[in-house]
From TrEMBL:
Residues 232-447 form the Metalloprotease TldD/E C-terminal domain. Pfam families: PmbA_TldD_1st, PmbA_TldD_2nd, PmbA_TldD_3rd. This is TldD/PmbA family protein. Residues 119-224 form the Metalloprotease TldD/E central domain. Residues 26-90 form the Metalloprotease TldD/E N-terminal domain.
Length: 448
């Protein structure tokens, strides 16, 4: 796999080629990844996989017309052909008065922050196999587990580089490791399945195989013999594993492109009190070893720490160049970029700070409610904010978690849900979006 310096050189070469072919402006992004994974099931090795990929994408501008194209062919002839096709495509594209490159005065400059994204450790297949086997053994040892869907470990190394005709040229490397297990409990039509998974930038930061395995087994067994519950309004408590999805819906609604298209339920509410006054949502792009840490965004603009929500209020829309130009706003460093296509919106590490009460205290006054541990279905309307998801979890009776539940639907509107959200104090910084246990009163639950 190429290193970030080689990837950056290829990007710069491609931008120069595009300009020689007639492009007025251009940018190129290169990504490379090498991955090794091992999966086991019922004590036997199931698969050992290794993959490598390299991709470079070019975006060119001819006047106000633009085109984007990508390839995995890094040879000089391949890059030349790519540049020729991109410029020709741009000449026939419709005009877009808003798209463009980030101006030079908004580029990330100076020394790279010390983010600790790349672990020098390179565990071999045998080490990964031992970790996977130990994880599955720990899960299968949990009383009540009857079968295994398997356990797996992966190790990834990635490179990203970006160069623009306005003078930006930087790149960096990172690593990622993950450990997971999925178990089965019960027999026949009464079978239940659940999982545990953890990712980290550094191998040493992963929990032990025993911890992940035990969590997978215990979560699965706890779901046996599920019931339903009446259809009415209840307090709903979200497990931290899934609560981050609520923050994800907010981010999708405050992205500049959605606002420019007028396709967001947040339109007209940017000055409202969205959450309780004690709620902040914080973005930390420079967190060391963060799963989404980055020094610059997909357009070369510096990523900076900020509060997305402060005192319950929105601090502003999240923009890339096109949406900032259309809305007449400043760039915020939130451009997201894949190998091809125009930039979208992406955030770095996010978290909802912990509240002042324990999860037990948060639930103590709930006579009857629902503790949600998993969600499924895509019933979220980002234009209206209407929210309806299938759910499984546990009944809350007299402040205590009781019997497991299944075949439940929870519904509400995200604006109302945000205003009613109360966090507990059990925040752990282990994901890319971290939230504590959260409670939302007054949600509609559809059951039996």
């Amino acid at each position: 796999m190429i290193d970030h310096e080689t990837a950056l050189a290829r990007c710069q070469d491609l931008v120069a080629l595009a300009q020689r072919m007639g492009a007025d402006a251009a940018d190129a992004v290169a990504r490379a990844n090498s991955s090794e994974s091992v999966s086991v099931r019922l004590g036997d090795l199931e698969a050992v996989e290794r993959s490598e990929s390299e991709e470079i994408g070019l975006r060119v501008f001819v006047g106000k017309r633009s085109a984007s194209i990508h390839t995995s062919d890094f040879a000089p002839e391949g890059l030349k052909a790519l540049a020729e096709r991109a410029v020709e495509m741009a000449r026939h594209a419709p005009e877009d008065e808003y798209a463009g490159l980030a101006p030079e005065d908004r580029h990330f400059t100076g020394d790279m922050p010390e983010l600790e994204l790349a672990d020098p450790a390179e565990p071999g297949p045998e080490t990964l196999r031992e970790m996977a086997l130990a994880t599955e053994d720990a899960a299968r040892a949990v009383e009540g587990v009857t079968n295994s869907n398997g356990a797996g470990v992966s190790a990834d190394r990635s490179v990203v580089a970006l160069a623009t005709s306005t003078g930006f040229a930087r790149g960096y490397e990172g690593t990622g490791f993950s450990l997971s297990a999925s178990m089965v409990a019960g027999e026949g039509g009464d079978m239940q399945t659940d999982y545990a998974q953890r990712g980290a930038r550094f191998l040493a930061d992963l929990p032990s195989a025993a911890e992940i395995g035990r969590e997978a087994g215990e979560r699965t067994v706890a779901k046996l013999d599920p019931k339903s519950m009446p259809s009415e309004k209840f307090p709903v408590v979200f497990d931290p594993r899934i609560g981050g999805g609520l923050i994800g819906h907010l981010i999708g609604a405050i992205g500049g492109p959605a606002i420019a298209r007028k396709s967001s339920f947040m339109l007209g509410h940017e000055d409202d009190q969205l959450f309780d006054g004690g709620i902040d949502i914080i973005e930390e792009p420079h967190r060391k070893r963060g799963l989404r840490s980055r020094p610059f965004d997909g357009e070369g603009v510096a990523c900076t720490p900020r509060k997305i929500i402060e005192g319950g209020r929105l601090t502003g829309w999240l923009t890339n160049v096109a949406s900032a130009n259309q809305l007449g706003l400043a760039l915020t460093g939130h451009a997201g970029r894949g190998g091809g296509g125009a930039p979208g919106i992406s955030t770095s590490n996010l978290h909802l700070p912990a509240g002042s009460v324990s999860p037990e205290q948060l639930m103590s006054d709930i006579e009857d409610g629902l503790y949600v541990t998993s969600l499924f279905g895509q019933g979220v309307n980002m234009v209206t904010g209407d929210y309806s998801r299938g759910a499984t979890g546990f009944r809350i009776r007299n402040g205590q978690i009781a019997e497991p539940l299944a075949e439940i639907t929870i519904a509400g509107n995200l604006k109302d849900m945000f205003r009613a959200l109360t966090p507990a104090n059990d925040l752990e910084m282990i994901r890319s979006v971290n939230v504590p246990t959260v409670r939302i009163d007054g949600m509609t639950v559809a059951g039996e």
